[in-house]
Amino acid sequence: MAQMNQVLLRGNLTRDPEKRFLPSGSSVVNFGLAVNRRYRSGEEWKEDTCFVDIVVFGAQGDWTMENCTKGSPVLVDGRLSFNTWEAQDGTRRSKHEVVAFNVHFIARRDEGGQGVSGRAQSQGAGSSWSGPPAGPQGGAGEPPPMTDDDIPF
Fold it and tell me: How far, rounded to the nearest angstrom, does the alpha carbon of residue 127 sit from its chain's CA centroid?
């Protein structure tokens, strides 16, 4: 049976991205993502928030570092990863995180329902757009920002 490990999350950054470098010189960017779920329980509406750690490597991470800040709405496409390590006190620790292949900026809507803010979506592995995310929004060769209507669910 074929295996599949793919995660697609839409949420807001919980903190500014943090960059570090591997011994090889490659960059690694980490950030937290809050994914909200609104559901009905009986007659009242409730909200549930899931906090997820995201790690992004290379040029995709650099783009995220330059273009996203705490509160930025993004769509993350990646895979689930499980890490274990030994803490300084000798205890075994573990956690799940998402290794992102693509991070797409989602434009926020203004009062009239128009997409506003920020730069366009990112470049990255598997992305249909290969140009750099530079220049003004809507510039030549740059796709329009992703909005809620672009997400198929």
Answer: 14
pLDDT 10s digits, 5-61:
999 999 999 999 999 999 999 999 999 999 999 999 899 999 999 999 999 999 999
State the burial class of residue 72 (Cβ atoms within 10 Å of its Cβ: 0-12, 13-18, 19+). Answer: buried
Q: Say how many CA atoms lie within 13 Å of 80 toward its Cβ.
A: 11
Q: 84: which 2 tokens?
A: 């274990």
Specify whether the CB–CB gap between 53 and 78 falls below 8 A. no
CB contact at 8 A, 110 and 116: yes
Percent of the chain that is helix, strand, coil (3-state, to 5): 10, 50, 45
For the chain, report the end-to-end CA distance as a whole number of angstroms.
Answer: 27
Is the entire prediction scored with pTM above 0.85? no
